[in-house]
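New to this. Please check this fold:
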Amino acid sequence: MAPPAGNGTTISDGVAEDIITALSKIRDLFVIERNSAFTYRGKPFNAKQIGRELGVRYLLEGSIRRDGERLRITSRLVDAGSGRQIWGEHYDRDGAAIFAVQDEVTQKKWSRFHITKSELDRTLRKRPEALAAYDYYLRGNALIEEAYRSDRAKNIQAARRMYEQSLIEDPRYAPAVTGLARTYHMAWIEPTSYEPMAREYQQQENPDRALSLAQQAVALDGELPEAHAILAVVLHWQYRRSESMAEWRRALELNPNLVEGRYAISLYHNGRAAEAVEYSKRIMRLDPSHSPRYFSYLGTAYYLAGRYSEALKALRTVNSHLPDYRPGIFWHTAVAAQLGLDQEARGAATQVLRLQPDFTITKILRLIRFARQKDADRLADGLRKAGLPQR
Protein backbone atom coordinates (compact mmCIF):
# COMPACT_ATOMS: atom_id res chain seq x y z
CA MET A 1 0.00 0.00 0.00
CA ALA A 2 1.00 3.65 -0.29
CA PRO A 3 2.85 5.08 2.72
CA PRO A 4 0.69 6.24 5.60
CA ALA A 5 -0.30 9.89 5.68
CA GLY A 6 -0.84 9.89 9.44
CA ASN A 7 -3.63 8.96 11.85
CA GLY A 8 -4.56 5.97 9.71
CA THR A 9 -4.94 8.04 6.53
CA THR A 10 -3.10 6.89 3.39
CA ILE A 11 -2.53 8.31 -0.06
CA SER A 12 -4.88 5.62 -1.36
CA ASP A 13 -7.55 6.87 1.04
CA GLY A 14 -6.99 10.36 -0.30
CA VAL A 15 -7.38 9.20 -3.89
CA ALA A 16 -10.61 7.40 -2.96
CA GLU A 17 -11.87 10.50 -1.17
CA ASP A 18 -11.12 12.68 -4.19
CA ILE A 19 -12.97 10.31 -6.51
CA ILE A 20 -15.96 10.29 -4.14
CA THR A 21 -15.90 14.10 -4.02
CA ALA A 22 -15.66 14.34 -7.79
CA LEU A 23 -18.60 11.99 -8.38
CA SER A 24 -20.71 13.78 -5.77
CA LYS A 25 -20.57 16.90 -7.95
CA ILE A 26 -22.70 15.16 -10.57
CA ARG A 27 -26.27 16.19 -9.86
CA ASP A 28 -27.99 12.98 -10.94
CA LEU A 29 -25.76 10.67 -8.88
CA PHE A 30 -26.47 9.78 -5.26
CA VAL A 31 -23.00 9.30 -3.78
CA ILE A 32 -22.33 7.98 -0.28
CA GLU A 33 -19.97 10.17 1.73
CA ARG A 34 -16.41 8.95 2.34
CA ASN A 35 -16.78 8.37 6.11
CA SER A 36 -19.43 5.73 5.51
CA ALA A 37 -17.74 4.26 2.45
CA PHE A 38 -14.49 3.87 4.39
CA THR A 39 -16.12 1.75 7.11
CA TYR A 40 -15.74 -1.20 4.72
CA ARG A 41 -12.01 -0.66 4.22
CA GLY A 42 -9.99 -3.77 4.98
CA LYS A 43 -13.07 -6.00 5.26
CA PRO A 44 -14.18 -8.81 2.94
CA PHE A 45 -15.88 -7.38 -0.13
CA ASN A 46 -19.51 -8.51 -0.30
CA ALA A 47 -21.13 -6.36 -2.96
CA LYS A 48 -24.72 -7.34 -2.21
CA GLN A 49 -24.38 -6.75 1.53
CA ILE A 50 -22.58 -3.41 1.16
CA GLY A 51 -25.03 -2.21 -1.46
CA ARG A 52 -27.96 -3.15 0.77
CA GLU A 53 -26.47 -1.47 3.85
CA LEU A 54 -25.61 1.74 2.02
CA GLY A 55 -28.68 1.75 -0.20
CA VAL A 56 -26.74 2.11 -3.46
CA ARG A 57 -26.85 0.37 -6.81
CA TYR A 58 -23.18 0.51 -7.81
CA LEU A 59 -19.89 0.14 -5.92
CA LEU A 60 -16.48 1.41 -7.01
CA GLU A 61 -13.63 -0.62 -5.49
CA GLY A 62 -9.91 -0.13 -5.86
CA SER A 63 -6.42 -0.28 -4.40
CA ILE A 64 -3.00 1.30 -4.75
CA ARG A 65 0.28 -0.57 -4.38
CA ARG A 66 3.77 0.91 -4.52
CA ASP A 67 6.87 -0.69 -5.99
CA GLY A 68 9.70 1.80 -5.62
CA GLU A 69 8.62 4.91 -7.54
CA ARG A 70 5.95 3.03 -9.49
CA LEU A 71 2.32 2.70 -8.50
CA ARG A 72 -0.13 0.01 -9.53
CA ILE A 73 -3.68 1.33 -9.29
CA THR A 74 -6.63 -1.01 -9.73
CA SER A 75 -10.29 -0.15 -9.87
CA ARG A 76 -13.50 -1.91 -10.73
CA LEU A 77 -17.17 -1.00 -10.92
CA VAL A 78 -19.60 -3.57 -9.51
CA ASP A 79 -23.37 -3.89 -9.73
CA ALA A 80 -24.36 -4.19 -6.05
CA GLY A 81 -27.59 -6.01 -6.81
CA SER A 82 -26.04 -8.89 -8.74
CA GLY A 83 -22.43 -8.67 -7.64
CA ARG A 84 -21.45 -8.60 -11.32
CA GLN A 85 -18.37 -6.63 -12.35
CA ILE A 86 -19.29 -4.00 -14.94
CA TRP A 87 -15.80 -2.73 -15.57
CA GLY A 88 -12.30 -3.26 -14.23
CA GLU A 89 -8.89 -1.90 -15.10
CA HIS A 90 -5.41 -1.41 -13.69
CA TYR A 91 -2.84 1.31 -14.25
CA ASP A 92 0.95 1.15 -13.82
CA ARG A 93 2.24 4.69 -13.44
CA ASP A 94 4.88 6.68 -11.63
CA GLY A 95 3.83 8.47 -8.43
CA ALA A 96 3.42 11.86 -10.10
CA ALA A 97 0.70 10.48 -12.40
CA ILE A 98 -1.66 9.51 -9.60
CA PHE A 99 -3.96 12.49 -10.09
CA ALA A 100 -4.28 11.87 -13.82
CA VAL A 101 -5.44 8.34 -13.02
CA GLN A 102 -8.00 9.76 -10.57
CA ASP A 103 -9.47 11.90 -13.32
CA GLU A 104 -9.54 9.03 -15.79
CA VAL A 105 -11.33 6.73 -13.35
CA THR A 106 -13.79 9.50 -12.48
CA GLN A 107 -14.57 10.62 -16.01
CA LYS A 108 -13.89 8.03 -18.68
CA LYS A 109 -15.70 5.10 -17.11
CA TRP A 110 -18.80 6.96 -15.95
CA SER A 111 -19.73 8.09 -19.45
CA ARG A 112 -21.67 4.81 -19.77
CA PHE A 113 -24.29 6.29 -17.42
CA HIS A 114 -25.11 9.05 -19.93
CA ILE A 115 -23.55 11.79 -17.84
CA THR A 116 -22.84 14.81 -20.01
CA LYS A 117 -19.31 15.92 -20.82
CA SER A 118 -19.91 19.29 -19.16
CA GLU A 119 -20.89 17.52 -15.93
CA LEU A 120 -17.83 15.29 -16.12
CA ASP A 121 -15.59 18.28 -16.76
CA ARG A 122 -16.92 19.89 -13.59
CA THR A 123 -15.53 17.00 -11.56
CA LEU A 124 -11.94 17.92 -12.35
CA ARG A 125 -10.06 19.37 -9.41
CA LYS A 126 -6.93 21.52 -9.46
CA ARG A 127 -4.07 19.29 -8.45
CA PRO A 128 -1.16 20.16 -6.15
CA GLU A 129 2.22 20.83 -7.70
CA ALA A 130 3.83 18.23 -5.43
CA LEU A 131 2.57 14.91 -4.10
CA ALA A 132 4.02 15.88 -0.71
CA ALA A 133 1.56 18.79 -0.53
CA TYR A 134 -1.28 16.32 -0.92
CA ASP A 135 0.18 14.02 1.74
CA TYR A 136 0.45 16.83 4.32
CA TYR A 137 -3.09 17.94 3.44
CA LEU A 138 -4.41 14.44 4.18
CA ARG A 139 -2.58 14.41 7.50
CA GLY A 140 -4.23 17.72 8.40
CA ASN A 141 -7.67 16.38 7.54
CA ALA A 142 -7.18 13.33 9.76
CA LEU A 143 -6.12 15.54 12.68
CA ILE A 144 -9.15 17.81 12.23
CA GLU A 145 -11.45 14.81 12.59
CA GLU A 146 -9.53 13.68 15.65
CA ALA A 147 -9.97 17.14 17.20
CA TYR A 148 -13.72 16.51 17.50
CA ARG A 149 -13.02 13.40 19.59
CA SER A 150 -10.15 14.32 21.90
CA ASP A 151 -7.32 16.77 22.68
CA ARG A 152 -9.01 19.50 20.70
CA ALA A 153 -6.45 22.29 21.03
CA LYS A 154 -3.53 19.91 20.50
CA ASN A 155 -5.03 18.35 17.37
CA ILE A 156 -6.05 21.71 15.89
CA GLN A 157 -2.50 22.98 16.33
CA ALA A 158 -1.07 19.80 14.80
CA ALA A 159 -3.48 20.03 11.84
CA ARG A 160 -2.45 23.64 11.31
CA ARG A 161 1.19 22.60 11.07
CA MET A 162 0.32 19.98 8.47
CA TYR A 163 -1.61 22.45 6.31
CA GLU A 164 1.21 24.99 6.62
CA GLN A 165 3.71 22.34 5.53
CA SER A 166 1.46 21.48 2.59
CA LEU A 167 1.54 25.12 1.53
CA ILE A 168 5.32 25.19 1.77
CA GLU A 169 5.28 22.41 -0.83
CA ASP A 170 2.65 24.18 -2.94
CA PRO A 171 1.68 27.74 -1.88
CA ARG A 172 -1.32 27.78 -4.23
CA TYR A 173 -2.95 24.53 -3.11
CA ALA A 174 -6.48 25.70 -2.30
CA PRO A 175 -7.61 22.64 -0.27
CA ALA A 176 -4.73 23.21 2.17
CA VAL A 177 -5.64 26.89 2.48
CA THR A 178 -9.23 25.80 3.15
CA GLY A 179 -8.06 23.44 5.88
CA LEU A 180 -5.89 26.13 7.43
CA ALA A 181 -8.86 28.51 7.53
CA ARG A 182 -10.87 25.82 9.28
CA THR A 183 -8.28 25.46 12.04
CA TYR A 184 -8.52 29.15 12.85
CA HIS A 185 -12.30 29.04 12.79
CA MET A 186 -12.53 25.95 14.99
CA ALA A 187 -10.24 27.41 17.63
CA TRP A 188 -12.17 30.67 17.57
CA ILE A 189 -15.85 29.73 17.58
CA GLU A 190 -16.19 25.95 18.19
CA PRO A 191 -14.53 25.01 21.49
CA THR A 192 -16.01 21.95 23.18
CA SER A 193 -14.19 22.45 26.45
CA TYR A 194 -14.03 25.54 28.62
CA GLU A 195 -11.04 24.50 30.69
CA PRO A 196 -8.65 27.46 31.19
CA MET A 197 -6.06 26.17 28.69
CA ALA A 198 -8.62 25.75 25.92
CA ARG A 199 -10.13 29.16 26.65
CA GLU A 200 -6.69 30.81 26.54
CA TYR A 201 -5.98 29.10 23.20
CA GLN A 202 -9.26 30.38 21.80
CA GLN A 203 -8.48 33.96 22.81
CA GLN A 204 -5.19 33.88 20.91
CA GLU A 205 -6.97 33.34 17.62
CA ASN A 206 -7.84 36.13 15.24
CA PRO A 207 -11.17 35.62 13.44
CA ASP A 208 -9.97 37.90 10.67
CA ARG A 209 -7.29 35.29 9.89
CA ALA A 210 -9.98 32.65 9.31
CA LEU A 211 -11.83 35.04 7.00
CA SER A 212 -8.77 36.07 4.98
CA LEU A 213 -7.70 32.45 4.49
CA ALA A 214 -11.21 31.39 3.42
CA GLN A 215 -11.31 34.24 0.91
CA GLN A 216 -7.86 33.27 -0.34
CA ALA A 217 -9.00 29.66 -0.88
CA VAL A 218 -11.96 30.82 -2.99
CA ALA A 219 -9.69 33.14 -4.98
CA LEU A 220 -7.27 30.28 -5.67
CA ASP A 221 -9.99 27.84 -6.76
CA GLY A 222 -13.48 29.21 -7.21
CA GLU A 223 -14.69 25.73 -8.24
CA LEU A 224 -13.81 24.14 -4.89
CA PRO A 225 -17.03 23.58 -2.89
CA GLU A 226 -15.19 23.21 0.41
CA ALA A 227 -13.63 26.65 -0.02
CA HIS A 228 -17.04 28.29 -0.44
CA ALA A 229 -18.34 26.25 2.51
CA ILE A 230 -15.66 27.40 4.95
CA LEU A 231 -16.10 30.99 3.77
CA ALA A 232 -19.84 30.61 4.39
CA VAL A 233 -19.19 29.31 7.91
CA VAL A 234 -16.81 32.15 8.80
CA LEU A 235 -19.14 34.80 7.38
CA HIS A 236 -22.05 33.29 9.31
CA TRP A 237 -20.26 33.70 12.62
CA GLN A 238 -19.21 37.21 11.71
CA TYR A 239 -22.95 37.88 11.30
CA ARG A 240 -22.72 38.60 7.59
CA ARG A 241 -25.58 36.22 7.08
CA SER A 242 -26.75 37.15 3.57
CA GLU A 243 -23.18 36.85 2.24
CA SER A 244 -22.85 33.54 4.05
CA MET A 245 -25.98 32.11 2.44
CA ALA A 246 -24.74 33.20 -0.99
CA GLU A 247 -21.56 31.19 -0.40
CA TRP A 248 -23.60 28.19 0.74
CA ARG A 249 -25.67 28.38 -2.44
CA ARG A 250 -22.50 28.39 -4.53
CA ALA A 251 -21.03 25.43 -2.62
CA LEU A 252 -24.21 23.42 -3.18
CA GLU A 253 -24.29 24.34 -6.87
CA LEU A 254 -20.78 22.97 -7.21
CA ASN A 255 -21.56 19.84 -5.17
CA PRO A 256 -25.27 18.96 -4.91
CA ASN A 257 -24.34 16.04 -2.61
CA LEU A 258 -22.37 18.22 -0.20
CA VAL A 259 -22.38 16.73 3.30
CA GLU A 260 -21.83 19.73 5.55
CA GLY A 261 -23.73 19.89 8.83
CA ARG A 262 -22.87 23.53 9.38
CA TYR A 263 -25.21 24.43 6.54
CA ALA A 264 -28.03 23.17 8.76
CA ILE A 265 -26.84 25.59 11.46
CA SER A 266 -27.01 28.47 9.01
CA LEU A 267 -30.50 27.43 7.98
CA TYR A 268 -32.03 27.27 11.45
CA HIS A 269 -30.27 30.38 12.70
CA ASN A 270 -31.84 32.15 9.74
CA GLY A 271 -35.35 31.02 10.65
CA ARG A 272 -35.48 28.08 8.24
CA ALA A 273 -35.83 25.19 10.70
CA ALA A 274 -38.02 23.04 8.45
CA GLU A 275 -35.40 23.17 5.69
CA ALA A 276 -32.70 22.35 8.24
CA VAL A 277 -34.63 19.24 9.29
CA GLU A 278 -34.81 18.00 5.70
CA TYR A 279 -31.18 18.83 4.95
CA SER A 280 -30.01 17.08 8.14
CA LYS A 281 -31.98 13.96 7.20
CA ARG A 282 -30.49 14.06 3.72
CA ILE A 283 -26.87 14.24 4.85
CA MET A 284 -27.48 11.45 7.35
CA ARG A 285 -28.72 9.38 4.42
CA LEU A 286 -25.67 10.33 2.34
CA ASP A 287 -23.40 9.44 5.27
CA PRO A 288 -24.98 6.50 7.14
CA SER A 289 -21.94 6.15 9.42
CA HIS A 290 -22.00 9.85 10.24
CA SER A 291 -20.65 11.57 13.34
CA PRO A 292 -23.00 11.86 16.33
CA ARG A 293 -22.78 15.64 15.79
CA TYR A 294 -25.35 15.24 13.02
CA PHE A 295 -27.96 14.40 15.65
CA SER A 296 -27.25 17.79 17.22
CA TYR A 297 -28.05 19.55 13.94
CA LEU A 298 -31.21 17.50 13.48
CA GLY A 299 -32.33 17.85 17.10
CA THR A 300 -31.83 21.61 17.11
CA ALA A 301 -33.80 21.97 13.89
CA TYR A 302 -36.62 19.87 15.35
CA TYR A 303 -36.62 22.01 18.51
CA LEU A 304 -36.93 25.29 16.61
CA ALA A 305 -39.67 23.73 14.48
CA GLY A 306 -41.58 22.96 17.70
CA ARG A 307 -41.19 19.20 17.26
CA TYR A 308 -39.99 18.55 20.80
CA SER A 309 -40.37 14.77 21.05
CA GLU A 310 -38.31 14.23 17.90
CA ALA A 311 -35.77 16.80 19.12
CA LEU A 312 -35.39 15.01 22.44
CA LYS A 313 -34.65 11.67 20.79
CA ALA A 314 -31.99 13.18 18.54
CA LEU A 315 -30.35 15.22 21.31
CA ARG A 316 -30.27 12.30 23.72
CA THR A 317 -28.41 10.38 21.03
CA VAL A 318 -25.72 13.00 20.49
CA ASN A 319 -25.18 13.50 24.20
CA SER A 320 -24.82 9.78 24.87
CA HIS A 321 -21.95 9.70 22.37
CA LEU A 322 -20.43 13.16 22.90
CA PRO A 323 -21.04 14.08 26.54
CA ASP A 324 -18.80 17.16 26.33
CA TYR A 325 -20.27 18.56 23.12
CA ARG A 326 -21.68 21.84 24.42
CA PRO A 327 -24.23 22.64 21.63
CA GLY A 328 -25.91 19.27 22.03
CA ILE A 329 -26.09 19.70 25.80
CA PHE A 330 -27.69 23.12 26.02
CA TRP A 331 -30.29 22.26 23.37
CA HIS A 332 -30.97 19.02 25.28
CA THR A 333 -31.46 21.12 28.41
CA ALA A 334 -34.03 23.30 26.66
CA VAL A 335 -36.07 20.50 25.10
CA ALA A 336 -36.19 18.40 28.27
CA ALA A 337 -37.51 21.43 30.13
CA GLN A 338 -40.13 22.11 27.46
CA LEU A 339 -41.37 18.52 27.79
CA GLY A 340 -41.60 18.77 31.57
CA LEU A 341 -38.74 16.33 32.17
CA ASP A 342 -37.48 18.39 35.09
CA GLN A 343 -34.87 15.99 36.45
CA GLU A 344 -33.35 15.40 33.01
CA ALA A 345 -33.37 19.14 32.27
CA ARG A 346 -31.64 19.99 35.56
CA GLY A 347 -29.03 17.31 34.97
CA ALA A 348 -28.28 18.69 31.52
CA ALA A 349 -28.15 22.24 32.91
CA THR A 350 -25.58 21.12 35.45
CA GLN A 351 -23.52 19.68 32.61
CA VAL A 352 -23.72 22.98 30.70
CA LEU A 353 -22.39 24.89 33.71
CA ARG A 354 -19.65 22.33 34.23
CA LEU A 355 -18.41 22.90 30.70
CA GLN A 356 -18.94 26.67 30.81
CA PRO A 357 -19.25 28.08 34.34
CA ASP A 358 -20.04 31.56 33.02
CA PHE A 359 -22.86 30.36 30.74
CA THR A 360 -25.91 32.62 30.64
CA ILE A 361 -28.98 32.78 28.42
CA THR A 362 -28.09 36.32 27.41
CA LYS A 363 -24.62 35.27 26.27
CA ILE A 364 -25.80 32.36 24.15
CA LEU A 365 -28.45 34.48 22.45
CA ARG A 366 -25.88 37.18 21.77
CA LEU A 367 -23.60 34.57 20.21
CA ILE A 368 -26.26 32.99 17.98
CA ARG A 369 -28.21 36.13 16.95
CA PHE A 370 -31.29 34.40 15.56
CA ALA A 371 -32.93 36.01 12.55
CA ARG A 372 -36.36 35.54 14.16
CA GLN A 373 -37.20 36.76 17.65
CA LYS A 374 -39.56 33.84 18.21
CA ASP A 375 -36.66 31.41 17.82
CA ALA A 376 -34.63 33.31 20.41
CA ASP A 377 -37.65 33.35 22.71
CA ARG A 378 -38.21 29.60 22.26
CA LEU A 379 -34.62 28.77 23.24
CA ALA A 380 -34.58 31.25 26.14
CA ASP A 381 -37.86 29.84 27.48
CA GLY A 382 -36.52 26.29 27.57
CA LEU A 383 -33.22 27.27 29.19
CA ARG A 384 -34.99 29.42 31.75
CA LYS A 385 -37.35 26.57 32.69
CA ALA A 386 -34.29 24.37 33.26
CA GLY A 387 -32.92 26.87 35.75
CA LEU A 388 -30.01 28.29 33.77
CA PRO A 389 -29.16 31.91 34.64
CA GLN A 390 -30.47 34.74 32.48
CA ARG A 391 -27.43 37.00 33.01
Notes: The chain is about 60% helix and 10% strand. The chain has three domains: 4-122, 131-258, 286-385. The chain has a mean pLDDT of 82. Strands lie at 4-6, 9-10, 58-67, 70-79, 85-94.
